[in-house]
Amino acid sequence: SQVAASVSSKVAASVSASVAAQVASSISSQLAAKTSLKSSAKVSSTSKKTSTTTSAKSSTKISTSSQATSRSSSTIKTSVKTSLQTSQKSSSTSKTSSKVLTSSTISSKSSSISPTSAKASSKSSSTSSLAPIPTDPTKVDYQLAPIPDFQDADKFSIDKGPYAESAHFRLYGQDNDNTTIGLQHLEGTWDCYVNKLGWRSSGLSTSNTDGRPPYYKTNYFVIDNLVQYGFSGRTFQLFDNTGAGFVVVDSDYITQVGVMSHEYGHVLSMAEPAWWNQQNTFGWAETLGNFVAETYRSDLCADSRARANDTTGTGGTALQPFMVIGQSYRTMVEPTNNYFAWPFLSYLTYNLDNYSGFGADTMRTIFNTYNAKANETPFHTINRMAVSAGTTVQNLVGRYWARMAFADYGNPVAQNYFRYLQPTLDYNNTFAAGNNTYQVYPERAPRYFGSSIIPLNNLNPSVTATVTAQTAYTAYLVVQSVNVGVRFGNKYGDIRYIELVSTSGQGGIVKTASTDIADGELAMLVVANTPDKLLMYDATQAATGPASVGMNFTFTLDGATN
Fold this sequence. Notes:
The chain is an alpha+beta fold. Helix content is 26%, strand content 22%. It has helices at 2-11, 17-32, 59-65, 177-196, 257-270, 273-276, 279-282, 285-296, 302-307, 321-324, 343-350, 362-369, 378-388, 393-404, 412-421; strands at 35-37, 43-44, 79-86, 89-91, 95-97, 117-121, 142-143, 147-151, 163-165, 169-172, 215-216, 218-223, 233-238, 245-250, 430-434, 437-440, 451-455, 462-469, 473-482, 492-499, 501-502, 509-516, 522-529, 553-558. Strand 9 (163-165) and strand 10 form a beta hairpin. The longest helix is centred in the N-terminal third of the chain and has 20 residues, at 177-196. The radius of gyration is 24 Å and the shape is elongated. Residues 1-128 have low confidence and may be disordered.
């Protein structure tokens, strides 16, 4: 794209050529990754339109960066019937009509779900007797999934013509070099998450809770100019006996790993019955989709990409510094940033702070230990894991935000991208309120598990920061060492994290810390809203309610200014 080419030329002046290429790839990937999620009662249509609502302070920057424009695509009504295709022929089974759904909320999902008219096969391809549970689910042969006759007179219909397929997927609508690349992305993603990381197989679904065959291939349907409806890919689920997930994708994006893997991340979510059926996890759907796509491009999935012969599924990043850092005050996962909040999951996965029980298995553990009966938030699940490690989710969130001051969470490509963009980020979080005293702007006060990232200026050889707030928080001084005089290569050294500790003081909860500053070093003060009591909140509605309330605080500096 022209945006990618322009930024690539600028990056080349400050980072290596390889990083510039990765940044360009990042921007192209993010432009491609405007995806949504739909599901309903017979053919689920849980619509997650690609809507990126941002504040006036950073909307221009986001639109020129990558994953940009806010979309409000109209609700897509669907009429669906399914028929089971075997081999290269399809035969229609008897159909039973379901009632037209008139409620705007289905299965406790958010009001973004559209009314749906559905017809589904009354038969499934499962055998009359129960198949044995496989000892190794990764070795099971996947059979063809039911094919929906999916169309809308005013929108689009799926193409069931030419197809290309692999062991776990079938792509309808094309059979060419592009579909080969798309299948390589998908097989590599399947191998990394199902085979390597042990996630529940996408061949199963919420309809199959015991893991018995049959396992179904995931259907992708390629559609020309799908982006005219406001998205490049969208995932659906058949709530018939198979519960199979399927994806529609724009023909121009089947080679884009950011889109293909993102949508497959939704299908993987559908295989997790406890997680998928809960209201308080549903707001994390796009967060998880981008986490799947981003992690697939990382070293963690390198061997899986090699096994799939996927030579193009690497490079770039979906990190959005303008949102994640420039608007870090927002509730960590909520409607305006759900596409951008995935670095928290990456932080737990890379586990640079070596917390016991976290690492590559983090998401699998979250899935397996999620308390569906409580309809809890993912933060509650993570907190149980944290307590087992001798800490709390509040400490993890505070440490995460400290690391995000310089994007130091485990992805060097994302960190280089952050360093290139850092001079343009919006750090206007505070104002002077007296002698060496500063206060957070009310509209940018950190909300539930959000933070304020505050650059420090005019650094002296010793710096002291003291923060005062009325509710619980976590704060750090973060210092980035710099190899002074280095013009090429990595001029950055280690990063130090100094947590502010409780001290005596008046006016609330007072914490302080001091550190020495060497010549050329950079410093940030990070204050995260980490309340003692976890909120039971719906991330699709977090723009209102307790999760949207900001935490006011003041701070004083000795040896620095803001």
